[in-house]
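USER: For my understanding, would you kindly supply a protein sequence with its C-alpha cells?

ASSISTANT:
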Amino acid sequence: MSSWRAHILREFTPKVARLTLVADPDGLLLEEGILEDIRKRGFELMPFEDHVAFRYAYESKFRSRWDRGEQTDLVVVLHSTASDLGTLPYDLLQAGRRLSFNLGDIFPNLSYPVVAALDRGYLDALYDAQRRYAPGQLGDNATKEFILRHVFEIAPELIKQPSDLLRVLLRRHYREQRIPAILDERFIQLLRLNDAFADWPLETIIPDREAFFAFLQERWPVFLDRMAAVNDPGAREDAMPYGFSYPGPADLPFDHHDIRVYIDNLFLEGMLQSVPHERAEILSKTWASIGVRIEPAEDRGCRLNRLIENILSSVPAEDARHGEWFRFARGWAELKVLVHDPEGTTLQEQVTQKVRDLQSQVDAAFTAWLVRRYAGLVNLPPAPPVMLHHIPRFMARYLGDEQNGKVALLLVDGLSLDQWIVVRNAVSKRRSSFLFRENSVFAWIPTVTSVSRQAAFAGKPPMYFPNTIQTTDKEPALWTQFWVDQGLLQNEVVYAKGLGDGNLDLVDELITRPKTRVVGLVIDKVDKIMHGMELGTAGMHNQVRQWARQSYITDLLDLLLDRGFRVFLTSDHGNIEAEGCGRASEGAVADLRGERVRVYADTLLRDKVQARFPSALKWQPIGLPEDYLALIAPGRMAFVRDGERIVSHGGVTIEELIVPFIEIKRRNI
C-alpha cells in the first residue's frame, strides 16, 4: 500500500454503519493525518476513556440525533486490545461494528516495542523505509538502528569526531525531533565505543534540548576568543578563564561548515544568546557577528531584518503538523519582542511595513490551517500535551511514576508567548540557576478565560462543562474532581487564584500542608495589566517586564521547588493589539460580549450580526457545547468603536491561541 494510513482508512466508508467500535491500543487513529482524513469522510471520533463523560457526550450529541432520524457516522475508540472491546457498554456492542488496528500488522518485521515507542508523526518515514529496504525480520537493537538511520538520519558508525556529533544534535534539537528514550540509549551506547567522546556529557545533551543549547552557550565565548585571536594576529589569545556547568571539551568547532549553517538561526530564534566581548569590533566583521553583542541599535536592526527573512521563508503549509506551528510561534514571539524593544530606536517605516505584511500573511496561513486541522487536535494523546486540557493528564503521569511525587501548575492568565519571553528573560537575571524546558500548547477557541482556563483545570474539553462555561467559579471543584478521578484524595489537592502581588503566605500555607501533592495556582496579574492597557503591545511588554523584575514570580518558583514540587507554567490565552471595527448592536442576544468575540445560542442570531461584519469568522463549536456559537472579529480587529485601539483576546491569531507550556527546574549539574 502507498502509506500506513491506507491500512486503516480503507475500513472507513461512509454510511456503512452509524456506529463503529475500534480497538486502537497504539493510538493510530489519533495521528493528525488519520484524524483529518476520517473527518473528511464524514466520521466523528470519540475516545472511550471516562465512562461518565463518554455517556454524557454520546447521549447528548449522537443518540439524540439518531432518535430524530439524522444520519451520523460515529467512531468510538478504545485504547486497548481487540479482546477488550467487550468491556464497552452493552448498547454500543449491539449497535456497532467492530474493528481493530495495531502497529504489529503494519510493521510485521520490526520489533513491536521499539516501533510502539515512536511518535506517530514519524510512521510515514518508517513505512517508506520498510518498503524501500525490505529489512527482513529485525530484533530490538537492529530495529533501533534501522529507525535511527532511516527515520532520524543518524548513522552512529559515521559519527567519528566532534563536528559529526554536533551536526547530528543540532539537526535533532533545532527540528525538535522527539526521539524515544530507548533509541537514545542505543545511540549513546554506540557512541561510548568511541574514545573521542569519553568526556562528553552524552546522557545529558543527547535527550535534553535545553541542556544541549546550554552546553553550546557555555562554549560560545571560548570560540569567540579563538576567532578574535585568528582575526587579530597582533593580539594574544588569553587562557580560558571560564567555568563550565557541563563537562566536556571547552572549544567546539562552531566554524565547521556543517555547524555554521545553524548558527544564525540559533541566535535569531533565541536558542542561543549573543554575548559581549572585548574584541567585539573585530568580531562584528566576521560571520559570527550574530552571536556578539554590539551597539544596540545596529544589533537590533541587523537581527530584525534577518529574523523577518527567516520567518518569511518558514511559514508552515496548510497541511503542516501542529509541531511546525509551535516552532514557528516561538520565532514569531522573538520577532514581537524585538519589534517592541523599549530600549530600541523607532523602526524605519520600511521595516514596519515588512512586519505588517508578514503579519497579514501569517494570520491568513494560520487561520486556513486551523479550519482544516484544529478539530483533530482535541483527541490527540496528552503526552506531550497539545491542548490545554491535556496538561492535567500529562502531569498525572508524573504522579503515577513517583509514589510521593508532587506537581504544581501555575496558570498565568492572559500570558502570550512573546510576553513569556519577556518574563523568562527577567526571571533568568534574578535566578540564573533556573532551567526552562519550553514547549507550547493550543488554547481553546474562542480564547476566553471561562472556556480555556476552565478546560485547563478540568482536564476535559468545554463540551463537558456546559453549565459553567460562562464562569470560572467551578474551577476548584473541576480541578479537585480530575485528581480524585486519578486516585488522589480531596485533601491532597489545592487550588488558589487571584495571585501575582503581595506576599506568599497563602501559597506557603497551602503547599506545606502534610497531604498536599497537587497544586493549581492562577496568577492574574498579566490579565489585569492587559485589561487596563492603553499603550498597545509595547505597553504590555513594558508592564509585564516591570512585574517580572519584582520578586513575586521568582520567590513563588523558589518556594515550590524548595518544597519538592515539579513545576509547570502555562496560560489560558494570549492577547493582541486590536483596532475597533464597530460595536455589534445585538442588545441582549449575545451570551458573551467579548471585545474580540461574540457568542450566541442560535445560528440565526449569529448570522444576523455577521451580516454587519461579513469578514467575521463563524467558528464551529469544536469541543464546545452545541449551542455555544462564536463569531470572531475580523483579522486583528475588535467589536469596539471604529478606530479605537485596545489589547484584547478571544480570537484565533497565533498570539492568542498558541501559549507557553514550560517546565521550570533548577540546573542539577
